[in-house]
Design brief:
This protein is α/β, with parallel strands linked by helices. The chain contains five helices and seven strands; from the N terminus they run H-H-E-E-H-E-E-H-E-H-E-E.
């Protein structure tokens, strides 16, 4: 059982409001259509994923979090996304990248399955932030970078 499986019952109490603020910033920046497909990598309980007004689904390694998802979600890791190339119009990953087992492989997979937009957020206080930023620039084209209270939000093209 992972740390996130263990905290699953109180996960949203700990993280929902903070993640909702990031989602609102992202929604203002992206022009989503109802027909767009979106993948949330590291979706947690999926409650933030559900805020995106399109055909959204999630993937997360913590089975106990995935069980709570109001949108279609499956257990899985960023480093091995079980989808064909360019499967999703939009791929998001909110405050999960610093927890990937292999940041390079995870971001490469996100880039692989994205058609149009990629949004990745990373904790500003993470020791892995410099590596995350380098890796994002290696695999994606950064269009915009927003510093939010706790995170940096990267708006990218694959």
């Amino acid at each position: 059982m992972t740390y996130y499986d263990e905290i699953a019952p109180g996960y949203d109490e700990l993280h929902f409001e903070e993640q909702k603020c990031k989602a609102e910033i992202i929604l203002k920046e992206l022009s989503l259509k109802k027909t767009d497909t979106l993948l949330d990598v590291g979706c947690g309980t999926g409650k933030i994923t559900a805020l995106f007004p399109c055909n959204a689904q999630g993937i997360d390694p913590a089975a106990e979090l995935v069980k709570q998802s109001p949108v279609p979600a499956q257990v899985g890791k960023a480093e091995s996304l079980p989808f064909p190339d360019k499967s999703f119009d939009v791929v998001i990953s909110l405050t999960a990248v610093q927890n990937f087992d292999d940041i390079d492989k995870g971001i490469a997979e996100i880039a692989r399955v994205a058609k149009r937009d990629v949004v990745i957020t990373c904790l500003k206080k993470s020791k892995k932030l410099p590596d995350v930023e380098r890796t994002i620039q290696k695999h994606l084209t950064v269009r915009k970078r927003i510093e939010e209270q706790h995170d940096i939000i990267y708006f990218c093209s694959p």
